[in-house]
Amino acid sequence: MAKFDKVIPPGQEGKIDMAVEGERVHGSFHKTAVVKTNDPVKRQFTIGIAGNETPYVKLAPEGTVFLQGRFGDAVHRQIVLSSNEKDLDFEVTGLSSNIDDKITYAYAPGGKPGEYTVDVYKNPKLPTLTTYGSLFVHTNSKRSPKTDIQVSVMTKGSISVSPMTLNFGPVRFGDRASEGSPVTKSVVLSKTTGGLAVTRVDLNNANFSAIPEPVPGGNQYRVMVTFRPPLKRQSRHVESAEMIIHTNDTLEPAIRVQVVARAM
Predict the structure, then answer these.
(1) I need a surface site. Which of 18, 40, 60, 130 has the fewest CB within 10 A?
(2) Which pTM does this prediction carry?
C-alpha cells in the first residue's frame, strides 16, 4: 500500500510512503509501484522496495514438512523452534493440528535456552493417499501466539503407475468428410512385491475404452487404452476422462489415471 502527496507545487518536493504487509511476504521480497504524473517529459516511472521478512517464530528447517513413506513405514521429521523477539523469554505452550488422524506430534526443550524441538510422525497405518494439513505451534508470544506449519502427508503404494497421466496428444478428430482413426496407448502397472491382478477398468467417457493385459511374471499389467475420436465440434476440442483401474491389492484397490486427447 502507498500514501503520497497528490499535488506538488513547482520547485517543491513530495513524498511517497510505501508499506509492505508482513503477513503477505515470506523471506526476501521485492515490490514495485508505478508512479504516474502530469510531467510532459516523464509521465511515469517505477520505484521499488526490497527487504527480508523476519518471522517472530523461527523454524529450522523452513517450509513445508513432508511425511512420505509406504504403508507401515515409520516416518519422522524434527523442527527446531526459537524466537526472533529479543525481549521475550520464549516458550512453546502447546501443539494442535487439523489432521490428528494422520499425524502425531510432541515438543520438548531444545539444546539451548529459548529453543524447542517439535517431532512430527506420520500415522504408519494410513492407506495410500496424499493430503495436506496444518500443525499449529502455540507460544507465549503476544505478537505471534500461533504459528502455522504446513504438513504434507503421503502414503506411497507398492503399485507404480507409468504414466500417471495418459496424454494422447494432438489427434485427428472426425469431420464431415471422414471419421477419426482410433489411437491406442498403454499404461503399465508394476508391483514391487507380491502378485498383482487387475479386476476391472472403468472410464467415464465413452470415447475411451481399456483392456487390461497381464505381463508374464505375475507382478505387472499393461492397460491398453483406445481413443475413438468423435466429430470435431470446435477448434480446441478436448476429450478427457478419469480411468479407474481396480486391483486385488487391499491397500490400493483403485488406481486413478487421467486420460486426455485434443484435436489437431
Answers:
(1) 40
(2) 0.57
